[in-house]
Fold:
Amino acid sequence: MEKILYLPTHEYIRIEGTKGYIGISEYAAKQLGNIVYIDMPEPDDEVSAGEEFGAIESVKAASDLYSPVSGTVVAVNEALVDEPGLVGKDPMAQWIIEVEMDNLDELDGLLTPEAYAELCAHETH
Amino acid sequence: MNSELYGTLVFELSRKGRRGCAVPATEAAAGAVHRALPESLLRKEAPDMPMVDEPSAVRHYTNMSTNNFGVDTGFYPLGSCTMKYNPKINEALASSPEIAGLHPFQPAATVRGALEAYYLLQSFLSEIGGMAEFSLNPYAGAHGELTGLMVIRAYHAERGDFGRTKVIVPDSAHGTNPASAAVAGLQIVETRSMPDGTVDLDDLRSKLDESVAAVMLTNPNTTGMFERRIPEIAEAVHAAGALLYYDGANLNPMLGVARPGDMGFDVMHINLHKTFSTPHGGGGPGAGPVGVRAGLEKYLPNPRVVKHLDGSFGVISDSDSALGRVTFWLGNYTVLRRALAYILTLGADGLMHVGPFATLAANYVMNSLNDLYKQPIPGPCKHEFVFDGLLDKSTGVTTLHVAKRLLDMGFHAPTIYFPLLFHESLMVEPTETESKETLDAFIAAMRKIAEEATSRHEQLKQAPLCTPMSHPDETEAATHPKLKWKDLT
Structure:
């Protein structure tokens, strides 16, 4: 079964076994507006839970991207290099990086879709 | 403007062979050049320069100049930028031949007055900032920030304290703070803001340790709030062995009222184009003097101007500065002279009125609009304030729409979507140089927009309709910029 968890900083991770697909939430994509650039790591780079792994820039603002888990980058979404705007159109399908996770226990600290939805509702007041 | 006739680009007006005036033949001179230069350096083809007649060129540039918007044409309430009026006396003095004609290689004996003026500005800024000494060298605010952080690094390095590699900045900070820290080779750690926009002291304390080189703060901060707990913050920072850096971007309301040095700041820079009325130069020339408290003077860069015992002034380039140079000469001298002219024109009494009037103007505008726009932080504010969009968000009218509509009404837009603490940030800084009539006209425009958001929001979203350009495709411009005129065709 597919499982999706979130960080309070609006990144999601879709879990398939020991692989995780990390992107930004629909709420974050909506807040950012049109996306013009995504700074991504390279395959084989290490990412750490809670640490930044890249940045995303829209016509409104630039934000750091934080990794929900520790692990090794298996692949980046190459389509986003030429067309970063794809993330805004379908953020859940357009993951940014694919990661081989080091420690599945880290997932316990992440937000469930329900908890994340509540956080967003609170942010919009 | 009829852009088909006068051209949006001068290249579009060009017709091969057209000339503004007939130039006498230059066979002899050109021949001489040909003989003087080696073959490899000579052009084979004429450069592709536009060819237009004189009236077309004059009309083109005159029409182009009217597309500009600046403090000389209208109200410019750009938050965090202090777009105050630039008095013309500054320009007259700085462009006088005695100043504009100076050469950096002139012997010191021939520029005594110029050096005295430079020294005077160093002293005035030190007095205003509550610092021991100022360097006027840096070429811009960001350059001043970088220099200030280099001073801090040099201070730690000289004590043999090489483990301090981090700089703490608040999440409301100006983007230059983390950028300067990164350029200085330091790592950035963010500290949270309280709901009222001020520093969360508990969060800051939890991040202070022996790896922190400095904490950078703006006071009042970017939400226009004064950091009331600054003595406690300074104590915590110093207890951890770090230095406290003052980003002078928001010095305007403090001018002559409160001094960063007295608040416990160790190093600061000043944006002369904000507080001291020098032009916001569209990329330069600028000036970002950097000051330090007593004990840190020796870390300031060279060259500097000193007063000798006999009362004369000289340039020192070989003091034992740990930094060496950050500029080749003393700095952007004519910019510095504009700031000095501003200080001398206002005098001590005048300077002390700047902050209160800037603060009064901001509070007047905020309180005249907060029944229609959402004020997320309770007032009073200092020199600027932030709204979080319209109170009534049901119409879908956003901060961007409000800002665009203001352009139709003859106002520059406020700063939008900064600070990042709120989704619909709209940041207004009126400054002290605006009349009540101007502020009232801005308030009326903002109230009209709020009314339009209810009565005709679909039309409002089309604005601006009266500007040379209405809705550029910002995404396309950012992702596929066209940088050459030939790309347009």
User: Anything to note?
Assistant: Chain A has one domain: 3-123. Chain A touches chain B through 14 residues (CB under 8 Å). The domain at 3-123 of chain A is CATH 2.40.50.100 (OB fold (Dihydrolipoamide Acetyltransferase, E2P)).
